[in-house]
Automatic annotation (TrEMBL):
Keywords: Ligase. GO terms for molecular function: long-chain fatty acid transmembrane transporter activity; long-chain fatty acid-CoA ligase activity. One of its GO terms (cellular component) is endoplasmic reticulum membrane. Belongs to the ATP-dependent AMP-binding enzyme family. One of its GO terms (biological process) is long-chain fatty acid import into cell. This is Uncharacterized protein. The lineage of its organism: Eukaryota, Metazoa, Chordata, Craniata, Vertebrata. Transmembrane segments: none annotated.
Amino acid sequence: MAAIVLKHYHAFNGERLYQHVEEFLPSYAQPHFVRVMVRQSFIRKCIWQISGFNPEIISEPLYFMYEPSRSYIPLTRVLYQKVVSGEIYL
């Protein structure tokens, strides 16, 4: 998982991020999940470990690298269940 902080005048663009990640990072370093932070704050690793990538626990927007659409898409509860059950392979 990666965390990013957007400037107040920028919007998240999943397709653009996917292209950037695919171009500049090797496959083992590409984040499958991206957490968009509202503001930059002190990141506590233990809190992140507890919350994982569960959209019911995380209040910030969370995106999932969805390769068929070549984009990062919002992680919904349905998509989360498919990832956890193994229906969508990471």
